[in-house]
Fold this protein.
Amino acid sequence: PILQRHAWRPDRLVQILREVQEAVDFISDETAAHLAEALKIPYAQVHSTRDFYAFFYRENRGRYRVLFSDNITDRMAGNQALFEHMAKRLKLERGKVSDDGLVSIDYCSCTGMCDQGPAILVNNRAITRMTLRRVDEICDLIRGQVPLDKWPAEFFRVDDNIRRADMLLGTPHEPGKAVRAAIARGRDGMLAEMKLSNLRGRGGAGFTTAVKWEACRNAPATPRYIVCNADEGEPGTFKDRVLLQSYAGRVFEGMVIAAWTVGASHGFLYLRGEYLYLLQPLEAYLAGMRAAGLLGRDIGGVAGFDFDIEIHLGAGAYICGEETALIESLEGKAGRPRVRPPFPVTSGYMGKPTVVNNVETLCKVTEIAINGGAWYEAIGTKQSTGTKILSVAGDCARPGLYEYAFGVRIAQVLEDCGAQEAIAVQVSGASGVCLSEREFGRRIAFEDVPTAGSFMIFGKQRDLFEVARNFAHFFAHESCGFCTPCRVGTVLMKEIMDKIAEGRGTQYEMNELLRLQQVLKPGSHCGLGQTAGNAVADTVQKFRPAYERRLAETDFVPAFDLDAALSRARELAGRDDAAAHLGEEA
Ligand code: SF4
């Protein structure tokens, strides 16, 4: 029935694998071979796709698969002690399955719950606000083999935590209003408003949305596609989670407006696997939109305006947030970034023109459809129009979402969220920038500090070396392995950070870290590798004592003493004059 539901389509492979795993707990080589045969695709494709995604397993990982979110904010909230406690209670080691095949525990990358961590996933269902008591309760439920849907609903509660609302978060949504406004403006009129608004993508890169839309619209091939990138994987980011949970109408209507403007007939929402709990409510919302004539055929009564949206769930690969990797994943493959050009606007999903926009960007589109581009352009700064939502987490009294007009100073955000003793802020996640106190006067804007939304705060009790080490581990884990500088460089960086942490580092390792950054940045194929060394480079530069106090020696000390090793040879040769020693004058 799973294959039937997906019409035996190979491009649905990631969805098929997910559902098969849900049914039988893991995807064995035999199951992979069976799927390859049924879908009429090479076994290697099924095999490589399965092995690429962190949430697919080739061997039994237990009926209960527990993953502890391991972002730095989870660590600051004590996730390691909770992990150890659960491991002890279940008599388990990290990554191992219990002897009775019931349960396994491990760590995973950030699950997007930093405002209510520490968080875990159990069979991909998010559980927030973990405590020792909750660990005990969960151990009892697992040992009692209680099905997940019978666990206390409170465990799965995910709060929005909206702390500061502006024009997006503070305006009630009126279903259909934005779509009707866009249709009334006409396709050319809507594009003209988008140009006027100077809206830039909220996913991090800040590309002008109207330019993207126009390029797709002008591409001759059809059909055209609209993809909403809801693969919010940057550590510390969770704003899209809230928008999808409580502002889904805006997201989907933004997609409909994009389809209207560029002439697209089909849309995908690529939802990160960690947000599995949102799948059903979002499907229900789409059904409601279909019933209201906002999706399907002749939308808004316009003959021939046909557009519908399907939801595709990711499977634990951060790199799928990169738009071409996301498209590969949509096509049922491992999510490795494509070589560009061609760009998705001319050759995207299935080689057809495709617009990929971030969740927040699409919400902004509804504001522009209703209020016009000039109204929108007047808010924010010259190069950064409108508002920006920040996901604030870490050492502050009130973590959650804060929406500001672009141009807000870091110090203002810190004051609003009750961060009194901050010594650093990591803006835009692990790939972003680490700002020290001296820089708190800087502004959130593309012309100063650009951000996809993550805003992690570190108080004076925090060790910025450990922050950078956490990020180094993250990148080594998430590198897709496509290109050598990133595949090797991120692992080397992680190992050097571990060596320094163990007190075995020297000045040589410090120099190597900076040298690696210079290899990663220009040599990597995509943004992941290009930014993977940012946090290390920033903290070496701005928080150097955090590194130096761990160094065994500040001078280079070779791991192997060659001169000493040659002493036996000197003895045998009967020659022990100065010239027979390395480093001495002949
Ligand atoms: Fe993959 Fe890293 Fe290369 Fe990007 S930079 S393609 S993530 S190996």
Summary: The chain has a mean pLDDT of 95. The first strand starts at residue 64 and ends at 69.
